[in-house]
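Sample intake sheet
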Amino acid sequence: MDLFKRTKSIETSNMSNKAKKFLNRLLKILGSRVVYTLLSIVIIALGSYLAIQYARGSWRVTNKGIVANTGLLNVNSFPTGAQVFIDDKLITATDDTIYLEPDTYQVKIIKEGYSPWYKALTVQSELVTQSNALLFPSAPSITPLTFTGIDNVNPSPDGQKVLFFTNQASSQLKNGFYVLDLNSNFLSLQSGPKQVTDNLEDLDLMNAQIIWAPDSTEFIILAKNKEFLVSIDKKINLSEQKDISFQKKDILAQWEEEIYLRERQFLAKFPKEILELTKNSAKNVYLSPDKKRLLYTATASVTLAEDIVPPVPATNTQAEARTLEPGAIYVYDREEDKNFKVATVAALPDLLNQTDSNATDTATLNDEVADKINTEKIILADDLEEAVAKSLEASPTAFNRLQRADNFSTALSFANYYTAAQLNTIQWFPDSKHLLFVEEGKIKIMEYDGQNKTTVYSGPFANNFVYPWPDGSKLVIKTSFSPDSPNNLYVIDLK
């Protein structure tokens, strides 16, 4: 029995030792795995944090060592494949992203066959600065749109069409008003100017006044003896059309109400401080095509408050002008709460020396141009503080602000409301990021912050008329390249 007990005790002791060894081994394995797991978690977390900070530009390894708080410069261009110079050093090509220390850099983007793009861009810590350079051809091609000779050119309110008159067609039946759809393929044999009226010699349509409807589907002809409402859908015979002289006032009131309601809808998105400015201290206020910016001319010395809207990151870093100068032209960006001075009003008396195809005779030319100078675009929706909009039924007299004592001034009042092209000042480019204007007889484009002014055309064109294609790919001008040839419409290709 004693032997058995001793044997049993030895076996139990051996088993206990084995168990202890197994347990210790298991604990070591488990302990190692826990340590490894924890270590792995720490490494992954640290690596992720460093990667995120690297992507944000919080640090960067350079020849100077580890540089903290870098920013990103995203250099884009259209067309792509342009050279990018930073402080006169060739760095890369568009489109690319560059990490830089926070600072202001002179950025130049160059592509053969295009005008260079220059701009001082400020790179901020952990933020992305965009170049978005739109390059314009240094020698753009010019293509004729019309061939018969044209007069009385009037672009439509929607920016999609151009109305013009001709009396030099190959057939008398082909003389009259035409509508050119700028969205169509004008090089196609199936498209081109569409005739919408014939010509009646006794109406002197070359010098008639034109008023477009706000929806660009019809227009009014204000001739010497009669007045007509014309749809652009089909050609009409004016001799068979009824005179709308007695209805004109009511029709124009309806159109003004439509303009007012649209303006009220879009202006309501701007801060009240800016609305007060446009109402009391500005003129010739034009919404950008995307309705996010305002182009206006200051009429009084006003200082805009800071942070009218909450600040957003990575805004335009160009210098602002929040103290306004009377006679200066500005752009206000409602998303970024930025206000940029882009120009000062040019000397308007030069207009008196221009010929005007819409003038009835030489004797009255200067007076009519003087009226043109004095005709300004006004804000119709100046009652945004009112919860309910006005209506023609409830307030019929409220919608005659665009109508004047004579047809010339009335037509000009509506035309100025639709586009700044008639004012011979600055007008919006379709992308809402650029402005189009005439300076020293040349057609120029600049960015909405007043930077990077570029000459896109320096040849001859009549009456300072220039109008952008709906997609911004072309410009429409009226010109003649021969003294013996009449004016026609041409397009300047900007691609």
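Comment: Helices lie at 2-56, 248-267, 272-280, 365-374, 407-418. The first helix runs from residue 2 to 56.
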